[in-house]
């Protein structure tokens, strides 16, 4: 189930992808008509694409500020993109290792209450179980 931050970003992302496809279409047209387009038109298109990508990272950064964990398992990625995370070694349990390192390095300033620690451990166990299930399934496919 998605939370509010995920839903909001997914809505933004779908609109962003739609606009990106329109820009890519414009780039293809520009490529096919490179000899007839002015430098000003080409620079304008490049400027639009640059601003479009900047908007993506601005929105993503704002959403991360609201809920960083939502970005460790992005709901807007397609199955191929998600599998690339696994192939490169990124798994959800990586977030727990990062949290452990942060807690150790910030020990005096970051203190979790017992309920938070217990919930984190429950989530860690569930995540590890899910990872093992997925890895077993991936091994079967190989």
TrEMBL record:
GO BP of this protein: DNA-templated transcription
Residues of the DOG1 domain: 6-142
Highest taxon in the source lineage: Eukaryota
GO molecular-function terms, A-Z: sequence-specific DNA binding
PROSITE patterns xrefs: DOG1
UniProt xrefs under PANTHER family: DOG1 DOMAIN-CONTAINING PROTEIN, PROTEIN DOG1-LIKE 4
Protein name per its UniProtKB record: DOG1 domain-containing protein
Organism the protein comes from: Brassica campestris
């Amino acid at each position: 189930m998605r939370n509010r931050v995920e839903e909001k970003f997914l809505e933004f992302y779908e609109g962003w992808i739609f606009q990106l496809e329109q820009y890519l279409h414009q780039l293809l047209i520009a490529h096919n008509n490179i000899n007839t387009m002015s430098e000003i038109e080409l620079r304008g298109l490049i400027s639009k694409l640059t601003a479009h990508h900047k908007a993506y990272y601005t929105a993503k950064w704002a959403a991360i500020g609201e809920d960083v964990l939502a970005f460790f398992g992005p709901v807007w990625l397609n199955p191929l993109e998600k599998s690339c995370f696994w192939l490169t070694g990124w798994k959800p349990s990586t977030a727990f290792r990062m949290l452990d390192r942060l807690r150790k390095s910030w020990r005096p300033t970051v203190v979790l209450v017992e309920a938070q620690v217990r919930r984190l451990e429950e989530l860690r166990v569930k995540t590890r179980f899910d990872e093992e299930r997925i890895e077993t399934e991936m091994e079967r496919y190989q």
